[in-house]
Every structure is written in structure tokens, then in C-alpha cells.
Design a protein that fits this description.
This protein is α/β, with parallel strands linked by helices. Helices cover about 40% and strands about 15% of the residues. The chain is built from 11 helices and 8 strands. An 8-stranded parallel β-barrel has the order 1-2-3-4-5-6-7-8, surrounded by 5 helices. Belongs to the triosephosphate isomerase family.
């Protein structure tokens, strides 16, 4: 049986676009993108811009919002952190988990990624789990092994009844913000490895529900070719999602 998965076009704004910039972005972006069946547009604005983004996308159910990070604890003395319940109360539907910048810049461990994923699911939001290898790991022919090592502990903690709410984003670390993109063939091969890992844990039927996105220097010029590859269900876009016209072009490339 063939499973049809919703296309997801996600923009991670990282530490860009304050509230006034966010409002201007959506004023320019929304008229360029008509709602379409089988497609979901997602934004991860900075926390301080979330309210402005939420106000701007009212009346557009095809546009969803998420937060870039959460803590796994429900509350307490964790200065600078957000809990899952706070994110949900603000209107978030999704949470980025395990992004390479959280892992490599802020030292997030696999155990912490697991805790966050579980907390997000238990809190009723959808985790977007990021996995990917560094350039040294790819050159050592360990790309697939590294991604499987990142996936394994998380999947072991996600019960099958929550699986349909999980999104996985394969982002080769060497392609994030560098202008260097994995070839379409590279992306297809790694997405196939992710899908095999899911099937080994959950079986083909359940695993087929999980969208797998590609991220890493996605641009209007390469988005259509990347999304035409087998197993690529959408994209997670960084820098190119900051430009309304450019990101609208990427969304339209999904069909």
C-alpha cells in the first residue's frame, strides 16, 4: 500500500526577524502563496517574534508555527528556556529538536534530544527531529552510521501510537549555511537510510506515516529537484526562508 504524506515546507528563522520584521515578512509572503491541498507551510520564528507571527497568519490554516527549542522539564529555575506547555499556550504546533546548531554549538547531547522529543510528544506538540553528519563523518564514510546512531535512541523512546506526529529532517551539517548542497542522489540515499531505520523499528506500514524532510542550503534554484527525489517529503530551509519572495518560490516548487 502506498502512503501519501503531506508535503512540509518549513522555514527556520534562527536568530533573525524581530517582531516588526516578522509582521512585514508575512505581509509580503502570504499573498504570494495560495493554500493548497497536500501541502503544509511551517515557520519557526524566534521566541520574541512568535506572537507577531501568530497574529499575521490568522485565517491561514495551511500555515503552522513552531518553536526552535524547548526544555524537557515542565517548569522551574531554567533561565532562558521554554517549556512545552508554554509553547503550546502561545500557539505553537511543532518544535525543532536536535538541530545541528543545538548539538554542535550548544552541546545538546543525544540523551537531551531524547528527553525533549518525549516531552514534546507528551505535551501534544509535534517534534521535528533533525539528524545529520559532519563533513569529517561523511569523508570517513560514516554518514549513514551517524544518522542511524542519532535516530536510534529517539525512536526507542517514541511509542508507535505517537509515530504519526513525528517529522524527521535530514540536514547534513556540512551543507547548513555553507551554500553547498547535497546532490539530489545524496539526499535520496540518506532519506532511504532514514526510512529503512524507521521500518526496522516500527514496520513498513507505521514507518510510512513519517515525513522525512531535507535541509541544508535549500534555495529556489534547487528546491524542485531536491523534492523530486524518492523519499524527500519536503524541506527545512534556513537562510532562504528569510526572504518572502524566495521562500514563496520554494513553497510553490512543491506543487
Amino acid at each position: 500500500m502506498t502512503v501519501t504524506r503531506t508535503r512540509i515546507l518549513a522555514g527556520n528563522w534562527k536568530m533573525n526577524h524581530g517582531p516588526s520584521q516578522a509582521a512585514r515578512f508575512f505581509a509580503d509572503f502570504l499573498p504570494l502563496v495560495e493554500p493548497a491541498d497536500g501541502r503544509s507551510v511551517v515557520f519557526f520564528p524566534p521566541a520574541v517574534s512568535f506572537a507577531a507571527a501568530r497574529e499575521a497568519v490568522q485565517g491561514r490554516p495551511d500555515v503552522r508555527l513552531g518553536v526552535q527549542n524547548v526544555h524537557w522539564e515542565a517548569g522551574g529555575a531554567f533561565t532562558g528556556e521554554l517549556s512545552v506547555s508554554m509553547a503550546a499556550d502561545a500557539g505553537a504546533e511543532l518544535v525543532l529538536v536536535g538541530h545541528s546548531e543545538r548539538r554542535h554549538v550548544f552541546g545538546e547531547t543525544i540523551d537531551e534530544t531524547v528527553r525533549k522529543t518525549v516531552a514534546v510528544l507528551e505535551g501534544g506538540l509535534d517534534p521535528v527531529l533533525c539528524v545529520g553528519e559532519t563533513i569529517d563523518e561523511r569523508r570517513a564514510d560514516r554518514a549513514e552510521a551517524v544518522v542511524v546512531e542519532q535516530l536510534g535512541p529517539v525512536l526507542a523512546a517514541v511509542p508507535v501510537e505517537h509515530l504519526a506526529r513525528l517529522v524527521i529532517a535530514y540536514e547534513p551539517v556540512w551543507a547548513i549555511g555553507t551554500g553547498v548542497t547535497a546532490t539530489p542522489a545524496d539526499a535520496a540515499a540518506m532519506h532511504a537510510a532514514v526510512r529503512r531505520t524507521l521500518e526496522e523499528v516500527y514496520g513498513a506500514g507505521a514507518a510510512g506515516q513519517v515525513p522525512v524532510l531535507y535541509g541544508g542550503s535549500v534555495k529556489p534554484e534547487n528546491a524542485a529537484e531536491l523534492m523530486s527525489q524518492p523519499g524527500v517529503d519536503g524541506v527545512l530551509v534556513g537562510g532562504a526562508s528569510l526572504d518572502p519572495a524566495g521562500f514563496a518560490a520554494i513553497v510553490r516548487a512543491a506543487g
